[in-house]
Write a sequence for this structure.
């Protein structure tokens, strides 16, 4: 057992174990996200993962395999970051401590301890992802997202998800936020292209399902297209998203018969009509006393050019939009300039590979100063490729060629089978006494 080499370390002498979890083959979103965050020293971001501003320390690190020395060294090196004064509470006492991290080739365990004699904010245990839940985690995903933007300098990377399975996978991998793509929702739910065919009913129901797969987990940003009507309808749409548990949404200035932002031939409404939409959205948000993040999006680049886009976003900012989105940058230089022209207002970058915008990596986006980055086709594009390839093989060869380790049980585990079995057993049920 290697003791953390930090003179400022304060151990918790009288503590109780709050949470312990193991992951086989590193295939666990909770472990992956927490350990990646810890090694990067991203304390504030980790706080919102738990849903409560908290302080963490690593009191010890053990290793069962020499192959993990490199990771252990990283963890030990980061002690100075993790144990700096900023991660303690006002009394310089740890509110919560990671007491041990065990790393091996096939098994990793994270144990979280809390002081017995402190007024811990942890009140419950989330069965879906097996996380401890803080009292303040009961606040909305919108509040989490708002605080992530305001109180961290992290680039919030959101993979685009389009259904329950893609959302489950994104949660398991360990992203800090998700994005529900309108194009993916229209394709998966309706089998139609992104031409404004999906309306509030389709989008809200889809968003509600995804947001509530893990209501205490990563916040969900969702596409709201044009708001689906005039000011009254826009306000109704915003209120529907709030009640559904959506953390943030973007509303745009395209005409009602809109199209994907990375297609040609886009048309936008006059600026004043766009401002009316933003005003209606802001009013609805305020009426609901919600922290939902209002993202003003302009698609005016094709019709009116860069300067008009910046002007529209500046007015939207004055109205009260929390974040800006200029869709369809045609160069990296233009993207970087937009951040400068609208600073310090946070901007969102929509990265659609093979679309209108050249490929910008997450590192490049962070260096430019973007605060949120969504990858709209992150799930649906590879799904399209995999499904087509598999079905073509079935037609040609009469076999799917499914990988041997992809069993029905593994797929159902991804969708929460173990958690549902636990509910049945804890309630005294007998449905799974003989296993599955």
């Amino acid at each position: 057992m290697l003791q953390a080499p930090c003179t400022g370390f304060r151990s918790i002498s009288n503590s109780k174990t709050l949470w312990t979890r193991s992951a086989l083959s590193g295939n666990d979103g909770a472990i992956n996200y927490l350990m990646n965050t810890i090694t990067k020293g991203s304390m504030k971001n980790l706080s919102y993962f738990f849903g409560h501003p908290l302080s963490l320390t690593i009191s010890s690190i053990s290793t069962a395999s020499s192959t993990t020395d490199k990771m252990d060294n990283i963890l030990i090196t980061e002690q100075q970051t993790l144990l700096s004064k900023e991660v303690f509470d006002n009394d310089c006492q740890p509110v919560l401590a990671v007491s041990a991290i065990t790393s091996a080739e096939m098994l990793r365990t994270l144990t979280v301890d809390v002081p017995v004699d402190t007024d811990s904010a942890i009140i419950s245990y989330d069965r879906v992802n097996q996380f401890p839940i803080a009292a303040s985690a009961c606040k909305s995903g919108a509040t989490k997202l708002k605080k992530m933007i305001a109180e961290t300098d992290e680039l919030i990377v959101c993979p685009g998800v389009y259904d329950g399975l893609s959302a489950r996978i994104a949660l398991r991998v360990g992203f800090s936020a998700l994005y529900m793509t309108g194009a993916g929702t229209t394709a998966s739910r309706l089998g139609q292209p992104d031409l404004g065919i999906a309306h509030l009913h389709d989008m809200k129901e889809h968003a509600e399902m995804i947001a509530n797969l893990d209501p205490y987990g990563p916040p969900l940003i969702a596409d709201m297209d044009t708001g689906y009507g005039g000011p009254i309808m826009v306000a109704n749409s915003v209120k529907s998203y709030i009640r559904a548990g959506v953390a943030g949404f973007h509303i745009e200035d395209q005409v009602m018969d809109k199209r994907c932002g990375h297609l040609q031939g886009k048309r936008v409404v006059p600026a004043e009509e766009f401002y009316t939409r933003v005003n209606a959205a802001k009013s609805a948000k305020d009426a609901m006393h919600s922290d939902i993040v209002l993202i003003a999006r302009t698609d005016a680049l094709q019709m009116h050019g860069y300067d008009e886009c910046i002007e529209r976003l500046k007015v939207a900012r004055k109205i009260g939009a929390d974040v800006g989105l200029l869709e369809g940058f045609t160069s990296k230089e233009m993207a970087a300039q937009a951040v400068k022209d609208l600073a310090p207002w946070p901007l969102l970058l929509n990265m659609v590979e093979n679309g209108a915008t050249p490929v910008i990596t997450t590192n490049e986006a962070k260096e430019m100063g973007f605060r949120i980055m969504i990858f709209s086709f992150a799930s649906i594009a590879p799904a399209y490729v995999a499904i087509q390839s598999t079905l073509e093989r079935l037609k040609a060869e009469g076999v799917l060629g499914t990988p041997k380790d992809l069993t029905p049980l593994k797929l159902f585990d991804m969708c929460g089978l173990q958690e549902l079995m636990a509910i049945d057993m804890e309630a005294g049920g007998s449905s799974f006494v003989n296993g599955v």
DSSP finds 17 helices and 15 strands in the chain. The longest strand covers residues 15-24. Residues 262 and 412 are 35 Å apart (CA to CA). The radius of gyration is 23 Å.
